[in-house]
Amino acid sequence: MKFDALLSQATSVKDRKILDLMDNERASAYSVQADGLLFDYSKTNIDSASRDELLALANDVPAAREAMFSGQKVNETEGRAVLHTALRSFERKVSVDGVDVIPDVQSTLSRMGEFAENVRTGAFVAQGGAVTDVVNIGIGGSDLGPVMAATALSPFHSGPKTHFVSNVDGAHIADTLADLNPATTLIIVASKTFTTIETMTNAKTAWDWMAKDVADPGAQFAALSSNAEKTAEWGIAPERVFGFEDWVGGRYSMWGPIGLSVMLAIGAENFQRFLDGGAAMDTHFLTAQGLDNMPLMLALVGIWHNQGCGYATRAVLPYDQRLLRLPAYLQQLEMESNGKSVSMDGETLPYESGPVVWGEPGTNGQHAFYQLIHQGTRVVPCEFIVAAEGHEPNLEHQHRLLQANCLAQSEALMCGRSLDEARSKVANKFKGAELERQAAHRVFPGNRPSTTLCIPKLTPFTLGQIVALYEHRVFAEGVILGINSYDQWGVELGKELATALGPVMDGTESAEDKDASTQALVSFLTS
Ligand code: F6P
After folding, report:
1. What is the pTM of this model?
2. Which atom of ligand 1 is the closest one to the Cα of 142?
């Protein structure tokens, strides 16, 4: 089996002390730098033998990378190219089915820029005056990227206020629209397919809300979609429709039209810097060799912990409040991409695929779930993210405290606290058997792996680098796992069953062909 050698390597060494591997060279030898970012994986159990083993597993990555960047149809189950990189890196000429894709990308980007500037300057007039609020209605990749980036880049906001509605739960749209003025609100319907039930339902609710106050709701609607037919059916004028091709996957789409809400908030120039950050990471990924390649090393650390050591989850822990939505964004990026059970050839995988990804910003997480990370029975590899500089110069002392907390956590995870140390902490309070009992609760096993990604400051450029870094990490892990990272068939069954259950829930159809549990739940919820 593909991972046998790695597994036996990891099994034999994963319990040795990470601290014993530390020497003066380790911090630089087990870290990678790329255009101002530093990725440190020295606080893991990886040594040079395990790293060689990991690098050998990545032999197929360069050819697969070339295939993806050059527009080959690497998403084989959907028969599509995978070219989100073409939305941000314009120097490389890329063709799909013989057609150069870059001119269209650039013309859509400049149309978006013009529209955004018109809205921001008030040249685009809504029916009650200049636009004060923008509501992006979308879900999954049509929501998570934009909301994550808009939150991350709040110090750069200079446009209308942005709001995001995703959940089909009427509470989401009702709460969002409650304080808005329909006459000065722009609704963006973000949906690649323009058929997603949640988005279409919320869009209709927004349309009806607007129709009560303005003569022409459609004039305050814009659409971001690949489905021009459907946007036309909705009556959204073509000048406010921003299209993209099927080679942009939903969860990889924030670089193009799906990023319009972000562009409206931060302006076209700042949005361009976000694209530049992504492009810089693309160039790095394409040119840096082996150990110097940051996305590759991030992927290999992931493979080591998941396929090698058998750790089923990983936590993403940004020490940056504005990266609040990054864990949720990465959940879709990583879990929808690499949560598969069959290989590219349709064979059942004889090993685990992608891990469960979760997290929260520090320091909040410290006061919630870090207890389990430090003392629980499971090992959770942690991925810390922290900036050298904050955005609040007058609160620099708080930023230093934030950094101190971040570094303290990775140090505590690695070093732990021995029984002797625990005893001496409480020796003045307890004696004899009670001292032993109390000390045992205060032991930290330590030797728990973590990585730290350091960025200079959270800006549009560095955010672009971070997102592209994780995209390429997911890609490299997917290649090593031998799966298709670009389809998402696993979301379909639930959608089909929800459609079938709709008439059951509103009483127009009976639940009699459902299983007994579902019937009982229907009965409880509807009677
Ligand atoms: O949930 C599956 C999915 O297809 C995601 O991959 C996608 O990001 C999301 O739904 C939204 O799709 P759309 O942009 O077509 O509305």
Report:
1. 0.97
2. 14
